[in-house]
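User: Can you predict the 3D structure for this chain?
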Amino acid sequence: MSPFLSDLIPDILCRLPVKTLLRFKCVSKSWCSLIDDPHFAKLHLDHSLKTSSNVKLFLDNCIECDDKAYAVDFDSLHNLVQFPRPFIAEITKYRSRVIGSCNGLLAVYHREGGIALWNPSTRKCRYLPPLDDDIISDHDAFPGYHYDKNTVLGFGYDETSNDFKVVQMQRSKTQNCYKVLLYSLKANSWKRIQDCPYEFPTNYNDGAYINNSLHWVGDEIGEFYGGKVIFALNLATEKYYDVPEGDTSFKMKKCGGDCPYFGYMNAGVLGGRLCVSRDYSTCPVEDHINVWVMKEYGVKESWTELFYLSRDEWLTNIFHTRAVAYSRNGDKVLLDEGGGRQPAWFNLENETGETLSIVGAPQLVSTMIYVESLVSV
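Assistant: Here is the predicted structure, written as structure tokens:
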């Protein structure tokens, strides 16, 4: 084979789906070595992210005890596939749930089984080592269901050190704080970092990863305002910082009320930008939320209202609603309640909703976007 053709092979192969590449490993030893190479995995991932290709919608069964996970092509919502989950589901035990997606890897949490980093495309999985006994003994694992207020989680990629990291915050039963543990995939170990300087009034969402940081909403310790602060933990420096808020004093254009009080329900990522849901359940005119996006990260003036949802008019529970992704042409946003209801499309132009329906999938699912990759765990 000529050198010219050899040079073209990686560029051609990086455009193919992971399933095809895994099959092509049987072509020859050189192809197998190329596809297994971490540098090729990065080339393939970079191409997928640049072209928005190989994007999947992960479907997590919220109600039934199910050992399987499901995914579809995000653009078409067709080609349903199912595969075994990292943790076995038992009727009498807690179910696992996905706490984050980054570069093709999913982080899966099970209260009794621990945490696993999982590549659903290659079916490879790494189970994280358990926490130290002194951390576990100082944590009250109160009964709960899908989310536990006493355990706060997040998953992201530290670009500075080229390392995947998991954050697990545990509410201390002896101190008024959350103890924070940071896991490094490179080191395959946990370490204790600075306690979280905030309280979590609600915990319906895990950390939102953007700008090398994980983001949550909270309150100052000892105060309860229902989530007045947007804050982040930088995965490289391991320092916390506040994210500037947008205008909170304006009069809502649709409800017509002054809305003197609000709290942030959650932080998320939409179209590569930080987004938040603002709760106005105390509005004297209409119980509603607004979803805002930060068009330029860190710039207060770039916060822009994206849409408004009324509790009476919307298809699902707006208090748990999170924005998942824009449609391919950007005219709709997929919204997910996180459990117990069906996700739905919100049409940005006419402000109508349409329940998501996928043939063969469980009826009630929580959804998450991930990109297929060859990234190894």
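Residues 1-5, 142-146 have pLDDT under 50 and may be disordered. Residues 1-53 form one domain.
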